[in-house]
Specification:
The complex is a heterodimer. By secondary structure, chain A is of the alpha+beta class. Chain A has ten helices and seven strands. In chain A, the strands form two sheets. In chain A, strands 2-1-5-3-4 form a five-stranded mixed sheet. The relative contact order of chain A is 0.13. Chain B has a single domain, classed as 3 helical TM bundles of succinate and fumarate reductases (Up-down Bundle), CATH 1.20.1300. Helices cover 87% and strands 0% of the residues of chain B. Chain B starts with a helix and ends with a helix. The chains are: A alpha+beta, B mainly alpha. Chains A and B meet through helix 10 of A and helix 1 and helix 3 of B.
């Protein structure tokens, strides 16, 4: 049986280093399987995060051979180089321990981007009818499947360079709400996402789009926000 | 106000980039055409001296640069050097004025 040479980041917010492990290789083995093997068979002190194992929860994202990925949906065959893999925590997020990052700032930025839905109907009124074929609904559809895994945030260089930048996930969320015809807080939302900590900081590198495991293009949503902010400015709503 | 200002800066940079794209094409095309018979100061001055059209063209070119460069540097200084705030913006405003003055001095030198 071949062995995988696995380097895993060990450390905390202050410092750390890569530790090497030999892991037996199996058919259809995922990177999450590799990490789980290390924790259960080789070193029970290894800290990592996972839940569903099937690409639904978004909690197992890590940096694999330098690129952010869901480890549960990444087969070893796809990323291995010379029987070696390097596994590190997500970039641009504070490390709590080993492969576990602190996601608070990531989700706080969703709140700062006004990522909450604000409607004006009460339960006494009938449901809103949103036509599936409407352009706005299609725009919202394109970004709505985000599960908040942090892969795009970790892939984004602007997040790395500008710590105040809201990031692709929060801006994608804001874009889906801008296109939600039931929402009533768009003027406030556009004010929240404009500026050099918001959509105008995006350089259209498209790393978020390249790495998103759901095939979402936050870049397209951010471009849409830039347009909408401009229209809001021309209507004197900013 | 900050959001409006940031949005206006973004629009200004995009608009000045569009102007610059056109200006650079015209400038390079003229350059390629003009060097066909050899490039001399006399030939350049013969084309530009007293020409209101070239004066207007290069004045627009210089002003687009004076707007575009400081706004771009603003993001570079933020992201690469962590320099934010009013001190950065005042320095860049000064740099933009310097670019405009130096550029317009050169434009007027070949017009007058």
């Amino acid at each position: 049986m071949t062995q995988l040479n696995v380097k895993v980041w060990r450390g905390d917010a202050e410092s750390g280093r890569f530790q090497q492990f030999d892991v037996p290789r199996h058919a259809s083995q995922t990177v999450l399987d590799v990490v789980t093997y290390i924790q259960r068979a080789l070193d029970p002190t290894l800290a990592y995060r996972f839940a569903c194992r099937v690409g639904m929860c978004g909690s197992c994202a890590m940096t694999v051979n330098g690129a952010p990925r869901w480890t549960c949906r990444t087969h070893v065959d796809k990323v291995v180089r010379n029987d070696a893999i390097e596994i590190a925590p997500l970039r641009s997020l504070p490390v709590i321990r080993d492969l576990v990052t602190d996601m608070r700032e990531f989700f706080d930025k969703w709140a700062r981007a006004k990522g909450q839905f604000h409607g004006n109907r009460t339960k006494k009124e009938d449901f809103s009818v949103v036509k599936p074929e409407s352009p706005q609904r299609k725009q919202a559809d394109a970004g709505i499947e985000c599960i908040g895994c942090g892969v795009c945030y970790s892939a984004c260089d602007v997040v790395k360079w500008n710590p105040d930048y809201l990031g692709p996930a929060a801006l994608n969320r804001a874009w889906t709400l801008v296109n939600d015809e039931r929402d009533t807080a768009n003027a406030e939302r556009l004010r929240a996402v404009a500026g050099d900590a918001g959509c105008h900081a995006c350089h259209t590198h498209m790393s978020c789009t390249e790495h998103c495991p759901k095939g979402i293009s936050p870049t397209a949503g951010i471009a849409g926000l830039k347009r909408e902010v401009l229209f809001a400015l021309s209507r004197k709503e900013l | 106000m900050k959001v409006k200002g940031e949005t206006l800066l973004w629009v200004t940079q995009r608009a000045s980039a569009a102007v610059l794209a056109l200006c650079v094409v015209v400038h390079l095309a003229t350059l390629v055409y003009a060097v066909q018979g050899g490039l001399t100061a006399v030939e350049i001055l013969a084309r530009t001296r007293g020409s209101v059209a070239w004066l207007a063209f290069y004045a627009v070119f210089v002003l687009a640069i004076a707007l575009h460069v400081p706004i771009g540097l603003r993001a570079v200084l933020n992201e690469r050097a962590g320099w934010r705030g009013a001190s950065r913006d005042w320095v860049l405003l000064g740099f933009g004025v310097l670019l405009a003055c130096a550029g317009m001095r050169a434009v007027l030198a070949v017009y007058l």
